[in-house]
Amino acid sequence: MAVTEAPEDAYTAEPFVPDGAGLDELRRAAAGCRGCPLHRDATQTVFGAGAADARVMLVGEQPGDQEDRQGRPFVGPAGRLLDRALSEAGIDPGEAYVTNAVKHFKFTQAEPRKRRIHKAPVLREMTACGPWLAAELAVVEPELIVVLGATAGKALLGSSFRVTQVRGTVLEEEIHGRPERLVPTVHPSAVLRADDRDGAYRGLVTDLKVAAQALG
Q: Is 21 exposed, middle or buried (0-12, 13-18, 19+ CB in 10 A)?
């Protein structure tokens, strides 16, 4: 008897993404995504949040523990820090669309009920989730993408991306078939982990000011 391949073994979300859908329909469809094995352990899909006509889209790595529990992106400590940095840079957080390159929380856990430790997604998992990000970009059509950290940069710009080399600059690249302007910076969680947190925070705000200027 032939063994049937599970959908997640194909490592692509493509079969789950409805054509021509708006954000609400995409969000509902994403809740049932089994495009890679990460859905098995995560509590739920964490889709993007924000207005369909947002001028700026912020793309992070993946949901964290709090996001996985609440089902919304950037609701944990890193999200609060990001909102503060955006406001300081002159970008209204309420007018941005926020999402992640990967929509399920990837973690390790020593024992049940122990703290879940974030684990970085691999390129195969980022690529599998790419159709969701492509669909979000097609609907929102942002004037600018702010790339938060190395994983988001690799998902959008390829495995050779290095955030330290291009942070705080305006890049022009074709992303999922669309010409886009992007400003890379560090992920706010990296600021929280930094030895010099104040310096890291100032660097993030400086980069976001470049994004604010690019938006005009």
A: middle
What are 114-123's pLDDT values in tens digits?
889 999 999 9
Judged on CB neighbours under 10 Å (0-12, 13-18, 19+), 22 is: exposed
SS3 of 100, please? strand
Helix ranges (DSSP H) in the chain: 23-30, 65-70, 77-89, 123-140, 150-157, 163-166, 188-193, 197-215
Give the DSSP letter string of 89-108. HT--GGGEEEEESS-S--EE
Q: The tokens of 171 are what?
A: 């890049």
SS3 sequence of 158-178:
CCCCCHHHHCCCCEEEEECCE
- Which 8-state DSSP code applies to residue 107? E
Distance CA 75, CA 71 (A): 9
The CA distances from residue 183 to 28, 33, 79, 145, 214, in Å, are 29, 29, 18, 6, 9
State the residue for tokens 């609400």. Answer: 24
1: confidence class by pLDDT, cuts 50, 70, 90: very low
Q: What strand order describes the sheet that includes 144-148?
A: 96-100, 56-60, 144-148, 178-185, 171-175
